[in-house]
Amino acid sequence: MSSTPLPPSTQLSRREALGVLGGLALPLAGLPLSAVAAENSGPAASPPAIPPVTGNPPDLANLHAPLAWLAGVRGPALSFLDSRWRDLETWKREARPVFHRQLSYAPPAEPLGATLVSREERAAFTVETVRIRATAAYDIPARVLLPRGRRGPLPAVIAMHDHSGRYVWAHEKVLSAASDSEALAAFRADAYDGAWAEALAARGFVVLVSDAFYFGARRLRVEELDPARAAGDVRAAIQTARTARPGSSEWMAAIDRTCGQYEHLTAKTIFAAGATWPGLLVWDDMRTVDYLLTRPEVDPARVGCAGLSLGGLRTAHLIAADPRIKAACVTGWMTEFAAQLRNHLRHHTWMAYVPGLYPALDLPDAAALHAPGALLVQQCSQDRLYPMSGLQGAIAKLARLYAKAGIPERFRGTFHDVPHCFRAPLQAEAFAWFERWLA
After folding, report:
1. CB distance 19 to 426 below 8 Å
2. How confident is the model over 24-42, as pLDDT tens digits?
3. pLDDT digits (tens, 9 = 90+) for 8-27
4. Ordered DSSP codes for 217-253
5. pTM confidence score
6. Environment class of residue 106 by beta-carbon count within 10 Å: exposed (0-12), middle (13-18) or buried (19+)?
7. What does pLDDT average to over the chain?
8. In sequence order, what are the residues at sequence separation of 6 or more whose Cβ sits closer than 8 angstroms to the Cβ of residue 435?
9. How many other CB atoms are found less than 10 A from the CB of residue 366?
10. Quick one: which H or E segment has residue 365?
11. Spatial distance between the Cα atoms of 286 and 304, rounded to a whole number of angstroms
12. Which of 82, 179, 202, 274 is the most buried (most CB within 10 A)?
């Protein structure tokens, strides 16, 4: 989900931004596309077709046509569906280094370890707050949920929080605390029907939740910005962040508004520093895997990851980058990028784009680097963040990719007649997936 403001004529409320009324619900909602998986494991088709010129005019007007043409002629040439690839492992040995190279972020790491900050006992699990050593510049704050009364080593899942334009919260989006505000509880209930990291821990999984760069404990310190040097449309918000009571609704709104506007400058600065925003997220998430595998409670052969929205994209990128993940669930962020070009890039964060990757790999191609790992993709049919053609095309392509690899049963793509969310019915499907492949 993006924080990028829309023009007044298309301004969405928060609930709408979570995916209200996409208007195109599939008749096979909730069913796997196993039939598609069996259709084609042969040579790749032509470059991705550009969606026909129908509906709303292109967001870039006259500039759309040459850019759509460019996407059609340039990518993705390294897809496993190309006829030159016959063996999955051979393809992965060539494709995964390309993915890592385009991420452009491999900093010198500090010696692996973590500092225990606190421990909290709850009825079904213990919550440990830790700081994972990462680089000389920063640590990664995380929470580890350890099921009580279970004999280890146990399966583990990395729970990825979403974007949602809410920067004050990070792990709090999927893990509750006694100090939660009414606003946080309401957000969590709307998007998740509650704290899903806890529900998974109650089933016997070790769960790790970290604060991603730019969120929670790692957000932009808006209070330290000088309003006089800021753009005019956020000066008032910065001033409010400096004077309002921390935690108040006014303070949170000011923080979130300013962080949303400052994504542009943050992305420019990351690029100018020689990195990419997805690269930073992926490296940090891989570092949490490094740490998780040092825990005696965790079985290193049974590690998964899951997330909604930005958490779903982080999941897709992590499974492309790290073969140690054995099962995954991507919810609310799986599409074909060519389908996004006409009208659906404006809704998304800078955190989604890996510069230069598309000529080699589209997002489904990258996610297929997870094979033979088990992959569940959940699409929300009322989701306004993606065109239905992109949602359907991504599922169909992943089904073909897994079928060509000879393991169609290890991929499942489902459509749910809901807005952009990871509510209880989707969680039930995801948890059953992890119990099938990890437990």
Report:
1. no
2. 233 333 333 333 333 333 3
3. 333 333 333 333 223 223 33
4. GGS--GGGS-GGGS-HHHHHHHHHHHHSPTTSHHHHH
5. 0.87
6. exposed
7. 89
8. 203
9. 25
10. helix 363-367
11. 12
12. 202
